[in-house]
# Entry
Amino acid sequence: MTRYRLRAVLLLFLVLNLTACQTWQSVSLDAISPAQLIEEDRPASVRVTTPEVTELELVAPRVEGDELVAVGSSIPLADILSLEVHGFSLGRTVLLALGGVLTLPVILAISLVAGCGTGSCL
# Structure
């Protein structure tokens, strides 16, 4: 059982590291237009803020005329107040990796002590 517990802990840290690498990053609409960003970068999903809806995530967005179109919805480009895309977050990734490196030995020590207390040491 201890062997599988170790694998589960390592898998948990791997999943947490993978999710920490990505975060929503705001795009300056002064530097680039939403249409230009979508056509050049072709992001898998974007998060849009409009006057009517606080935040709306659009999957597989594309520009058709003067609208941002995605599965099940379309938004006029003029109504977009802010735009966010998924991007790599170095800070979050480094913090989580350091947290994992510092926390993993403590978790392993606790599991070894708990396992040895029941008489089932490695």
Observations:
- The mean pLDDT is 78.
- The chain has two domains: 1-21+89-111, 23-86.
- Residues 23-86 form one domain.
